[in-house]
Amino acid sequence: NDAQALKTYQQILKNYPLTDVGFNMPLYIAGYYKRLNKEVEMENEFRETEVFYRKAYQENPNSSEGFNALRLLAATYLVQKKWDDAVKSFEKILLDYSSSRYLDWKTAGSIIYSINAVSIEKLKKPDQPIEFYQIFIEKHPGYPLNNFLKEVIISLQDLKNGKKSPLIRKIWEFFLKNIP
Question: pLDDT tens across 30-39, in order?
Answer without folding.
Answer: 999 999 999 9
